[in-house]
Amino acid sequence: MSDSLMFWATGLGLVIITASSWYIVVHLRALRQQRQQREARQSQAEAKAREQRQYLIDSIRVIARAMSEDEKMTLTEGSIRLKVLLDNLMPELHHNPDFEIISTHYEATRHIPYLKEWTSLEPSQQRRYRQEMDVLEKQHRDALLRAAAKLHEYPLDRMH
Q1: Angle between helices 75-89 and 100-109 (to 10 degrees)
Q2: pLDDT grade for 157, boundaries at 50, 70 and 90
Q3: What is the pLDDT of residue 158?
Q4: Where are the alpha helices (DSSP H) in the chain?
């Protein structure tokens, strides 16, 4: 083989090696950047999930206190709110005997309109529903107050 052919073959080999090395470096940088972006998105999602979880826990505690200690909220309204919050935080708590009454009361009152639907009712319809709520609240009062008090103190932040 001639020297010039060897020189050109060696040169071509060096060009191929350099181009391949450059491609590998560029590709590795892109992969590293994608991984960093994925990790950043995952961290943001985890932070948002922790924030949402803490919001649910804080809301549950505020509503439970409003029901049991302050009695600033009707038992029916509190049960509706707690049921929805617990559904989002820990649905398995509905099966805990201490908290089953919340679901029971919710199911017994879920047909009653609320918010805009409530305001559009005739006064006689509102009165009828209010009487129904009063009967149910008297029937479930002690159990709901105990459940709210326990829920207020329950270690929700330690549960996963």
Answers
A1: 120
A2: confident
A3: 84
A4: 3-68, 75-89, 100-109, 116-119, 123-153
CA-to-CA dists, residue 27 to 21, 36, 60, 86, 129, angstroms:
10, 14, 49, 47, 67
Considering only CA atoms, which of 133, 117, 124, 52 is closest in space to residue 88? Answer: 52
d(CA 54, CA 40): 21
| 60 neighbors 90 (Cβ within 8 angstroms) | no
Q: What is the spatial distance between Cα 70 and Cα 158, in angstroms, rounded to a whole number?
A: 25
Burial-class residue 107 by CB neighbours within 10 Å (0-12, 13-18, 19+). exposed
Q: Contact 80/100 with Cβ under 8 angstroms?
A: no
Q: What is the pTM of this model?
A: 0.78
Mind listing the pLDDT tens digit for each residue in 34-48? 999 999 999 999 999
CA 58, CA 56: separation in Å to the nearest integer?
6
Q: How far apart are CA 75 and CA 85, in angstroms?
A: 15
What are the pLDDT digits (tens) for 65-121?
999 886 788 899 999 999 999 999 999 999 999 999 999 999 999 999 988 998 999
